[in-house]
Design a protein that fits this description.
This protein is an all-alpha fold. It has a domain of about 280 residues: Na+/H+ antiporter like fold (Up-down Bundle). It is about 75% helix and about 0% strand. The chain is built from 18 helices and no strands. The chain starts with 17 loop residues before the first helix and ends with a helix. The relative contact order is 0.17. The N terminus is likely disordered.
């Protein structure tokens, strides 16, 4: 059972010791890998569904991770999500927004409209304004982890796939900054000094940007002397990203914003394409697998009951708001209505990004997070299995999945790579 206000962090009732941490990693890896391969072998669904299903089964039997995240769960989540965000950022060309103002407006409108709509709908459930705003910010980002992983596994290519990467990167950026601003305002309103709070915020953002610049610079220097497609070079790159994420956690800056900014800096300060093994090889792929199991287990039946209709209202409102913004601007941004609808569906998932943001809010502002916890965790639980299937459906709707024989070959190649 998840104890939301507990300072002790355990998995399956085990005390946090080196042996239990190792058992946690091994157990999650085995369960997720078996479930993922079973799903891939028996259905046409992505392996992500199997990874998540393993976590859901663990949660159903009361063996889910506790919140806020800590110990092995936090380390794995930081590293895996950091790798994914760095990858996504390194593939996003921001000059696209300058050439296509309709797409830039789509990004701003879908994030803003969904946040405002969620906040007002939460108020209809007698949720206080601070909790409603927290829910709105936490529900803003669509997870790069789900959409990116599904697109890569299925070999999707095209406008919707590229736009989904761009929009998930940008709304993650908006959400992390908005959450930081809210925490700053809350701290000042709770008896603190607004000037000091803003100064602290500025230092934090500059430090985050500095660490991101160091990671981007280190990657650039490594690429000048090494072929990043080589397995040994990929291990070095993985080490650079992992060290930067651990350093970000140690000095207290965002482990979501830092790798995303690093990837964006890398891609947008150089004309060269950045190519390396997916998730930086086998170790990164294993971390991503464990990430989905962890997120899938971050709920209990009690949480579902507590979140109740408020969580369902949040999900419906969020999807409708994003769909309205994206579809209404699809023509102006150079996409068809069908592509706009498909892109809207790829923004459906709510997963690891929201979970990490919620964990950080619980740690920093437990009173503020208290009301949002059941709503957000219940929302994640509902969408954790539906989200990957929705992304697959959207990519098929957009016609961006390869023909079945090629897709089957792609999955066989994934098995050989150990993904």
């Amino acid at each position: 059972m998840i104890a939301l206000d507990s300072g002790a962090r355990v998995w399956a009732g085990l005390a946090v010791t080196p042996s239990s941490e190792l058992m946690f990693v091994v157990g999650v890896l085995l369960a997720g890998a078996l479930a993922g391969e079973f799903i891939a072998a028996t259905t046409r669904l992505p392996r992500v569904v199997g990874y998540t299903l393993a976590g859901c089964v663990a949660a159903l039997f009361g063996q889910g991770v506790v919140m806020p995240l800590s110990g092995a769960a936090q380390i794995v989540t930081d590293l895996a999500l950091g790798l994914l965000l760095f990858e996504i950022g390194s593939r996003v060309r921001l000059s696209w927004l300058r050439r296509n103002p309709g797409l830039a407006l789509t990004s701003l409108l879908e994030a803003t409209l969904s946040a405002l709509a969620v906040a007002f709908v939460m108020r209809l459930f007698d949720v206080g304004w601070p909790t409603a705003i927290a829910c709105a910010i936490l529900a803003m980002p669509a997870p790069a982890a789900v959409s990116g992983r599904v697109a890569l596994e299925l070999g999707a290519e095209g406008q919707v796939t590229q736009r989904a990467s761009l929009l998930t990167a940008l709304n993650t950026l908006y959400a992390v900054v908005a959450l930081t601003l809210m925490r700053t305002w809350w701290a000042a309103d709770d008896g603190g000094n607004l000037g000091q709070a803003l100064a602290g915020l500025s230092i934090s953002l500059l430090t985050t940007l500095g660490v991101a610049a160091l990671l981007a610079g280190g990657t650039y220097l490594a690429a000048r002397r090494l072929d990043l497609r080589n397995e040994s070079a990929a291990v070095l790159l993985f080490g650079l990203v992992a060290f930067s994420i651990v350093a970000a956690r140690a000095i207290g800056v965002s482990t979501l914003l830092m790798p995303l900014l690093a990837g964006l800096l890398l891609r947008n300060t150089s004309e060269r394409p950045w190519v390396w093994p997916r998730h930086f090889g086998t170790v990164g792929a294993a971390l991503v697998l464990i990430l989905f199991v962890i997120v899938g287990s971050a709920w209990t039946p009690q949480i579902l009951v507590a979140g109740g209709f408020a969580a369902l209202a949040l999900l419906v409102t969020r999807f409708v708001a994003k769909a309205v913004a994206i579809v209404s601007l699809s023509r102006w941004s150079g996409a068809s209505l069908k592509q706009g609808l498909a892109l809207s569906i790829t923004m459906t998932p709510l997963s690891a990004t929201a979970l990490v943001m919620l964990s950080e809010l619980m740690r920093a502002e437990p009173e503020l997070a208290k009301g949002a916890v059941p709503i957000i965790l219940a929302s994640i639980a509902v969408l954790e299995l539906i989200g990957p299937i929705a992304v697959q459906f959207a990519l098929r709707l957009a016609g961006e999945l390869p023909p079945a024989p090629k897709r089957f070959w792609h999955l066989k190649q994934n098995k050989k790579e150990g993904s």
